[in-house]
Amino acid sequence: MKFILLSALSIVLFASCTTIDVYEKNTFFSKHEWNSTEKPSFTFTVKDTAALYNIYIVLRHEDAYRYNNLWVNVTTQGPDGAASTQQLQLQLGDNSKGWLGSGMDDIYQHMIRITRAPIPLKKGDYHFSLQHIMREDPLQHILNAGVRVEKATP
Description:
Blueprint: H1 2-17, E1 22-28, E2 33-34, E3 41-46, E4 52-62, E5 69-77, E6 83-91, E7 93-94, E8 98-99, E9 102-104, E10 107-113, E11 119-120, E12 124-132, E13 139-140, E14 142-151
Antiparallel strand pairs: 1-14, 2-13, 3-12, 4-10, 4-11, 4-14, 5-6, 5-12, 7-8, 9-10
């Protein structure tokens, strides 16, 4: 009897661990430089339309990065096929506080929310692409850029 209960509990716990509440994917840049012609793209499938979601840009850079910000074009295409592009300034640091992200040695990571509040998403595939629009090209000391989508906690 104990074996059956233990087996049933294991199956329930295993099944609950297969639910994905977070999507994150990053593109790594060789030579630690991001060329403006490189437009990393990401695809995420929404199944739970009852949930609200937060969307983030994830960025890692070296301490030698020369700017307090990063300008990017974020293009999003939803399940209906309509695409839109946002031009965003990502604040990475300031002169009084230094880098705003978390750091280890000379590497800093930023997870910057690009939705003002949690948003509902329709069922289906969403496609994201990122392109830096800084004057420096290629943009030096950038290790990777990516997208993170997570269910908002109530």
